[in-house]
Amino acid sequence: MKKLFCLLFLAAFGVGTIQAQDFQFKADDIDIPYKKYTLKNGLTLLVHEDHKAPIAAVNVWYHVGSKNEKPGKSGFAHLFEHLMFNGSENYNTDYFQALGSIGATDLNGTTNNDRTNYFQNIPVSALDQVLFLESDRMGHLLGVIDQERLDEQRGVVQNEKRQGENNPYGKQWDYLTKAMYPKGHPYSWTVIGEMEDLNAASLEDVQEWFKSYYGAANAVVAVAGDINPEEVYQKVVQYFGDIPSGPTVERPEVNIPNKVNDSYQVYEDRVPETRVLFAWNTPQYGAQEDLHFDLISAILTSGKNSRLYKKFVYEDQSASSAVSFQSSSEIASEFIVYLNIKQGEDPKKLERELWAEISRFIEEGPTEAELQRVKAAYFASFIKGLERIGGFGGVSDILASNQTYHDDASYYKTKLNFVQDATVEDLKNTAAKWLSKGKHILVCEPFPEYTIEPSSVDRSKLPELGPQKSSKFPELQRTSLSNGLNVVLAQRAGVSTVIMNLVTDAGYKTDYLSSPGTAELTMNLMDEGTKDKTSLQINEQLQLLGATLSTFSDQDQSNVYMSTLKPSFDASLNLFADVILNPEFPQGEFDRLKNEQINDIQ
After folding, report:
1. Is 483 helix (H, G, I), strand (E, B) or coil?
2. Which of 14, 174, 223, 324 meets the CB 3.0–4.6 Å disulfide criterion with 301?
3. How is 90-137 classified by DSSP, letter by letter?
4. Is residue 80 domain-shared with residue 200, that is, in the same domain?
5. Model pTM score
């Protein structure tokens, strides 16, 4: 009991004296011993010994992701990840069931912009079975992919897309992807793809995708655990050695869009709170400034003492969460910051305050104390990850990812040195360089809340008719000209248009005097030319006057109809009269309209 008391006392005593400088990590002191082998077919094998427990982690990385897709073929990388869990030519059984039956844990496969990986932790006694299964789907898969299996997994992926988009803020990545990258950029479509592209995927498309990217030379196998490297190498040669290398894969170059101006986008979703998000284009994964942004992110939102959490969540209590992260990818990255704003708060005000905090960091940079705190947290997280042989952040994951992205499994040391050597001035310069450029502002607002009024309507019968209203027509003014033409004027107040209609008591019924169709052809020709104007000149003058003119017949009447504006009434009336009094009936127009009328009859 006495020893226990002393231990507790010392621990309590030490809490008050811990300072950031007490944790001085050195990147060069962190080492993951491994052996690297390259098979004749180009497959890279990385092996790390760890005899703490009789288990092994097998991590297989393929250097292919959504950025390798072509426009109109989005979603193929993720679709194929699903297909590769469905069984192979020599073990045509669901891989999740097969691996689960031998005690596999931390078992999954994932796809992102740049890679596809499959990983599992297993009892070391099952290593041969797992290597058999992984090699069988790498080298012996196409024989089991048929239309039925493709359709099944296509439906699974599409349902996964629907589920993701139906989550709160689920459309965020779709909007960001399209806003941050120009059309045609390898990152300008989402990893999960578009519904129409998935629907269009054929069996031949999928088979060609597999042949292009899943060869041995485009893969890294990392094995960590209670194993002997030479024995593992021999096993991998046995199971993987006969798999073809596959074609050479073209690697897109670093391509960071230069966003000059801010852009703004608002969308609605079924969410409880407004989210205000800022996003910037930033350097590629593994670059020195990429690691700087990991530290900047931690300073802004990691822990209660981080700047944005402390101000908006802890002190002001105007936001329920403050989040930032560097979304790193192989040829370009994004730095993202957002607040979830509590109900009742003013989103515009919080947006201004968020930008003010970012601007302050750009101008002043971090304090030395902030920098040392997040460095300690970064190294602690990395070192704790080394306790695990598999899973994200575990030893096999670290080795496989660095080999895949940087062609050097030890590149993690370079990144640790970037973190270790980062200064206050470095972070300030990186923030000023990239966060002063154009950003995309994405605002997600909750759907409006609607209510209904209580009903007092008796729906068992129609409502009674309301009081009748009498129509009001303009008073008609009449006169006759000396030639007997009757003139009727109906004046309307409040409108500046004038309508004229000459109506004659002769229509199709008078065709008996000539041939059927004569009345229609005659009226169609009326506005096709006068003594002084051609058809085109009449049309041009009508446009200048803002007027329309039509001539037509029905069963009993023929009409010349004009609509014009009050200021151009006099000139319009002159043109109206010219068409009525001086029709020329040109032979060319006659022939043209006669043929059109015959065509209409036919």
Report:
1. coil
2. 324
3. S--S-HHHHHHHTT-EEEEEEE-SS-EEEEEEEEGGGHHHHHHHHHHH
4. yes
5. 0.75
